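note to self: dont lose this again. the chain is below, predicted strucutre after it. 85 aa total, dont forget to put it in the shared folder this time
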Amino acid sequence: MKTVVAVKVVPAPAAVRFEPGLNRIVRHGVASVLNPLDRRALEVALAQRQRLGGTVVAVTMGPPDIEEQLGEVAAMGADRVVHLC
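---
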């Protein structure tokens, strides 16, 4: 069985700021982390793989500078990480 988990890299919750007047999140110069709920979904998929076998594929979309967080996804045990830029 192949399980696909969508993951997203987001600004660190403690570092979230908004641009005044534009109501957009400031991402430049802000630490990024794997979305905590997506991390949990990946953990559940990995536990399922351990019980039932198969592979886990993590898929994300984002800029090239999220490679560190995608390495973390691979280190958690994902068999494959797909990054769409």
